[in-house]
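Input chain follows. Return structure tokens only.
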Amino acid sequence: LKHRCRQFTYQDFKNFDYILVMDESNLRNVLALAKTEEEKNKVFKFRKFDHTVGGAPDVPDPYYGGVAGFEHVQDIVTRCSAGLLSFLQEEFPHAKIPDSENQDWMKEDELIMYDEEKEEQENDF
């Protein structure tokens, strides 16, 4: 999977149907950019799709948890991804899923992140 990371922008509300955030801070920052209810309704905490928890807790930062922390987050992301796929299959029952053996469809995907530090630096001027 090839991806690139960049800061979330207002235009992303126009370009994407679903916007997934990892934690409450990301949620607040992304929702602050939304201008309409329709845009706000595109934003979900990723753990909303985790069938093992109620509500939508944060995806923890694995950085300080050593190998076990990364494995724990990998398990969470795997569950959330499966839950998201189930949600999308229910929303779009006639959609076709690309052949998992041919992963060319993923080459253009982007991972978009909201960079709080960059935003703070830009706002300091």
